[in-house]
Design goal:
By secondary structure, the protein is α+β, with helices and mostly antiparallel strands. Helix content is 46%, strand content 15%. It is built from ten helices and ten strands. It is elongated, with a radius of gyration of 55 Å.
Length: 400
């Protein structure tokens, strides 16, 4: 402030007037200058947030309106398509559904059970029941058709493709036991469990036996009914050996061993649902031809189920021959209360050493003997097999 300014201020105070703020003009200049120095861009920036704040609520209000409008348009667009669908579906033919593993096949409970037993795939059937429901008749017809196709393929030499069966999901058939099969099961349990089995085996030279059979055939034996077979020779030899070693022709009976005077020969005959053992009574008194004829008659009536119970009950021992089925050797289970059973295998050509230490082609047959150790010891069984070998390797003794 200059001296003039201070004087004026002093004068005004003395007069009681308000001081003239001349210096304020000087003070205002810097502030004005500061305001003038502010760029225009800052003012615009200060104004922009306010404008944005005003616009933001407008935008927020517009979004819900836009979404509602879009939803209304979508509903309008979907409405005509929904109306058209029933008409289109009515015009289109019914769609075939692929019956995969997940699809459920319409079938009666009985049809499902029969299909599981016969291995029929229900998804391949066209059911004849209501709404294409598969019935028992449809399943059985499909099974017969599949069997016929497989049979025709076998006859024509065309292999049938093996069905793909998942583990544990294969077809199963429950077959109720027949009366015969029940008796067989009971007897086998009674035999192999309580009866102490032991086994003996021999191989015999079947060359002489084959030669004797060939001589009988060349002698003019033409009738099929009277033909003597290798099995007939074996049966006759088994009977003669039991007659010569009578202690083997016995059975166990509680606290005693029963030894039989007659040799009642049992012959195992295979049937469709099991086996029977027809018995040739007092076989030691019959010739080779008589045994042959008796066995053929009993086997024929057994297969036709025309036997009386007493004709296949009893017997002092049994002979089972599986040589005709290609079995080389096996060991059978004793038919209690008998003391032993013979197992006869097939006659095979083998390389053997003769009496001159030369390797030649020979015929050999395996014979097994299953013994009840309570009746027959090893030495007694060996004695019986020794006699049996002697008779079969010298078949002329069986013709006497």
């Amino acid at each position: 402030m200059g001296s003039a300014g201070r004087w004026n201020a002093h004068r005004n105070l003395c007069r009681g007037e308000a001081p003239v703020e001349e210096e304020k003009e000087g003070t205002k200049e810097p502030s004005e200058k500061k305001e003038e120095k502010k760029p225009e861009g800052t003012k615009a920036k200060e104004k922009e947030p306010k404008e944005e704040e005003k616009k933001e609520p407008e935008k927020k209000e517009e979004k819900p309106k836009e979404r509602k409008a879009e939803k209304k348009e979508e509903k309008k667009a979907a409405a005509p398509t929904a109306e058209k669908k029933p008409q289109a579906e009515a015009e289109k033919p019914p769609v075939k559904i692929d019956k995969g593993e997940g699809a459920r096949v319409k079938a009666s409970p009985v049809a499902r059970r029969i299909a599981a037993e016969l291995g029929v795939d229900l998804s391949t059937l066209k059911g004849s029941g209501p709404d294409g429901r598969a019935t028992e008749t449809d399943v059985r017809a499909a099974a017969k058709t599949a069997a016929a196709v497989a049979d025709r393929g076998v006859r024509e030499g065309k292999p049938t493709p093996a069905p793909t069966i998942k583990a544990g999901e294969g077809a199963r058939t429950r077959i109720n036991l027949s009366g015969m099969r029940k008796i067989i099961a009971q007897r086998l349990v009674e035999s192999l469990g309580p009866v102490p089995h032991f086994y003996l085996n021999i191989d015999i030279d079947a060359g002489p036996l084959m030669a004797a059979r060939a001589e009988l055939k060349s002698a003019g034996e033409g009738a099929e009914e009277s033909k003597i077979t290798v099995n007939d020779f074996v049966l006759k030899a088994a009977v003669e050996a039991a007659a010569k070693v009578p202690r083997a022709n016995a059975s166990f009976d509680g606290d005693a061993i029963v030894q039989y005077a007659d040799v009642d020969l049992g012959i195992a005959v295979a049937l469709e649902d099991g086996l029977l053992t027809p018995v040739v009574r007092a076989a030691q008194n019959k010739s080779l031809r008589e045994i042959s004829e008796a066995v053929k008659d009993l086997a024929h009536r057994a297969r036709n189920k025309r036997m009386k119970p007493e004709e296949f009950q009893g017997g002092t021992f049994t002979v089972s021959n599986l040589g005709g089925y290609g079995i080389d050797n096996f060991l059978a289970i004793i038919n209690p209360p008998q003391g032993f059973i013979l197992s006869i295998g097939a006659i095979r050509k083998r390389a053997v050493v003769d009496n001159s230490d030369q390797i030649i082609v020979g015929h050999r047959m395996s014979i097994g003997m299953s013994c009840d150790h309570r009746v027959i010891d090893g030495a007694l069984g060996a004695e019986y097999l020794k006699e049996l070998r002697h008779l079969l390797e010298n078949p002329a003794l069986l013709l006497v």
